[in-house]
Amino acid sequence: MAPPLGWWNEEAHRGTPVIVKMENPNWSIAEISSPDDDDECVMVAGEEFAAAGGGARKGARGRNAKQITWVLLLKAHRAAGCLTSLASATVGVASAVRRRVASGRTDSDAAVFSPEESPLLRSRFYSCIKAFLCLSVVLLGLEVAAYLKGWHLGAAETKHLLLPSSLGVRGLLESLYGGWVRFRVEYIAPPLQFLADACVILFLIQSADRLILCLGCFWMRFKGIKPIPKSAMGTSKDLESGGEDYPMVLVQIPMCNEKEVYQQSIAAVCNLDWPKSNILIQVLDDSDDPTTQALIKEEVEKWQQNGARIVYRHRVVRDGYKAGNLKSAMNCSYVKDYEFVTIFDADFKPLPDFLNRTVPHFKDNEELGLVQARWSFVNKDENLLTRLQNINLCFHFEVEQQVNGAFINFFGFNGTAGVWRIKALEDAGGWLERTTVEDMDIAVRAHLKGWKFIFLNDVECQCELPESYEAYRKQQHRWHSGPMQLFRLSLPDILRSKIGFWKKSNLIFLFFLLRKLILPFYSFTLFCIVLPLTMFVPEAELPAWVVCYIPATMSFLSILPAATSFPFIVPYLLFENTMSVTKFNAMISGLFQLASAYEWVVTKKSGRSSEGDLISLAKKELKQQRHASVPNLEATANGNPQHEREMKRKHNRIYRKELALAFLLLTASARSLLSAQGIHFYFLLFQGISFLLVGLDLIGEQVD
């Protein structure tokens, strides 16, 4: 409690009091008078000194001195701890960087290219980035020299600039700089400003689209809008006997060399609450590893002995990847006896009531073709990469798919955790292997036939997120090249379809062009190319609200569905811009049908069954490595390529495009210092650091 004002005025001659905040919860504030006090009046607020009004105590000054000493020691201890943490983190990052550079593994070492594609075509994108980087380094040197010499020439000054009368190095440099300024004002600034304005317009359109989706989500929450089935399922007695309320359901689990997760997914599906006579489970194994095939087949036989209706299917020729696998399974003669088909990828673990909460929506709703559940992630807090993915996917499910499903009855099928009416699949033409996004392909074709979709945000199915940047990068490449392939192939069908004009417009302009093409285009072009170039061509400008305020607002809206991840809003903004180089490259390859657009790499799984089994998983992997070390060495000595791949599959790499862009942005940030552009400097600096961390593979899973 603070002393009264009158006491303060009376004792003002005694000196200035000192306020010390105590870290111990039993001590809050101690007010100590100056050494000139005669009565040694001490007032202490806290649990231990609540009764301090009883007069002066002996040794109060000594006790207060001890308090100050302990506070200072505590502060020093915390400072030392922070310095130790920073030092250890710096040493760890430096050692990781040294390992990356020493290993010499780059992203080109792991890439899978068609033999028909020339090496020159494969490196064209990286060569363009390197050219921009070299140009920026040269221009930075020229601008620094001009800054030190005091040559600050604006656009108006360059029109009347004369060549220097004196010869020599200084005259040559001044002439060179004056010529560069005139050239950039007349020839570079106008097209660069036009490109910047075009990207800003696209940015505002996409931001408006995201804002409208968020408003739609808020409206649904405010009004309590959500899909409700017209009738519930049967009783528990019907569940045992298989009544009419339980239609025939086919469950498919496509997998390929995923020995880490097959047991969990098969067990989860076999435990679904559905009459045994009305459900059939197909394990569609495309594995080319004989050991994995034997393990999966053994697991299926175990559940068959336990009474589950489950069959094992293996294709000798793996054509069409996942689409070919599903197409082959749907050609079985017994499929005609089933009304619905549910698909789960190998790492998905549905809850027992999954079918009871999804299938009832089909009853008395003959136009409904798909019921999609949302994903939840068992490893969302594993590392920074998984946290950022969780933010992105939470917005995708809770905002994009939920709003589109509620208001226009259409969204892209996620490929798993969904229930299809088999009649809708057949009406749409079945599974096709023409793209790497077979799920989006079947959804678009079903939508053109008039089928409606429902998204259930409250029905979740657990799965895994990629924990390494390499796996996430390949997944994103497939997810962004496939839609462009599909757009080229399906555009004539969209134009010829009988759906309404507004549905056609939504499909072409919003679903494909805005969200699949324009978004990666402007994100990469505006923030990774145009913004750095405007630092070297100051006549072309980007306002601060484009660089900072609008992106920050959009990031805030994107992070709302995952509110607990709010502390990661800045890393999320930077990482999304960093991923734009991968998405832009994938979009271009899909749009122009380059060979890399047809890559299909199964996303690596770790086999986590719950959020609390990380320690047990690490122990399990260590035990498996110990048991397998000797056989693997023997197999490698005998030249077994399968075991060689197993030993070499996990490692970190250096990503050349990301590193080149990192140095380009850092060079541009150095140039912005000469112009005293604060917001632009900080954005370029942190964005360059983000590219640097990703380029050195310091985000996500770290492998020693």
Concise summary:
With 704 residues, this protein is α/β, with parallel strands linked by helices. The chain contains 23 helices and eleven strands. It has helices spanning 5-10, 60-103, 107-110, 119-122, 124-149, 155-158, 169-223, 236-241, 262-270, 290-305, 321-330, 354-358, 384-407, 422-427, 438-448, 469-496, 501-536, 544-559, 569-591, 614-637, 641-648, 656-675, 678-695, and strands at 18-21, 29-32, 43-45, 249-255, 279-285, 310-314, 340-343, 349-350, 368-377, 418-421, 452-463.
Protein architecture, described:
This protein is α/β, with parallel strands linked by helices. 57% of the residues lie in helices and 9% in strands. It contains 23 helices and 11 strands. It has an 8-stranded mixed sheet, with helices on both faces. A 3-stranded antiparallel sheet has the order 1-2-3, covered by helices on one side. The radius of gyration is 32 Å and the shape is globular. The N terminus is likely disordered.
Q: How do the strands and helices of this protein lay out in sequence?
A:
Layout lengths: L4 H6 L7 E4 L7 E4 L10 E3 L14 H44 L3 H4 L8 H4 L1 H26 L5 H4 L10 H55 L12 H6 L7 E7 L6 H9 L8 E7 L4 H16 L4 E5 L6 H10 L9 E4 L5 E2 L3 H5 L9 E10 L6 H24 L10 E4 H6 L10 H11 L3 E12 L5 H28 L4 H36 L7 H16 L9 H23 L22 H24 L3 H8 L7 H20 L2 H18 L9
Parallel strand pairs: 4-5, 4-7, 5-6, 9-11
Antiparallel strand pairs: 1-2, 2-3, 7-10, 8-11, 9-10
Helix pairs in contact: 5-22, 7-13, 7-17, 7-18, 9-10, 15-16, 16-17, 16-19, 17-19, 17-22, 18-19, 19-23, 20-21, 22-23
